[in-house]
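Exercise 7 asks you to align residues with tokens for two separate proteins.
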Amino acid sequence: MARQRSPKSPAGRPYRPRVGEIVKDRATGRLGAYMGEVRGEYYLRRPEGGIEWSARPADVECLPGEHPTVAIVSVPSEPRTSGRYRAGGPTG
């Protein structure tokens, strides 16, 4: 049986999701995977991928039931100082 979690912590603080957990941004109505927190804002990304957006922690709520997650894969990018990138874009 899945562990049920409340949208608010016992101290009345905003819900703190796990990285990769699918949550709802009540301000926009969108679902997103929780990516992390920077300077007091949560960063979410569509489960299919795409550009992250920021959300106020108070606007983020857990989904009822199983708390689905997505796999977060970090792919290191090539530094722009590697010489592959020029003023016109990638060279190869």
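Second protein for Exercise 7:
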Amino acid sequence: MATMISTALDLSAAFDSRLNDGDLPRLMELLADTAVSRTPQGDVLTDRKAIEADLAGMITAKAVLHNTPRVVLEADDVALLLIDWVLEIDTPTGRADLAGTTANIARRDETGSWRLAVLNPGGTN
């Protein structure tokens, strides 16, 4: 059974923890069934399996993510999350340190738990 995420703010720490632990099944629990994701390269992933493969690639590359929420606005069952992030990850040319601000949208599901519906790590870029 999926862990209850009681506030949209809690998604940030849960995402960090599960990615950094390499726990892909529990990481995928944080996503709404119809989630979409924009990759750093600008590709939009609308298929859950494609999003899972993208996250699996980050785990394989030994990603270490640190999220710092900047703004979380909840309105009924929808939330906007602006989150500053720092990511350490293995690349073909060595270990890289990246940073940015994500603009994500979350929604509360039928169980009352918050799930990420739109993942946009590039924010306005």
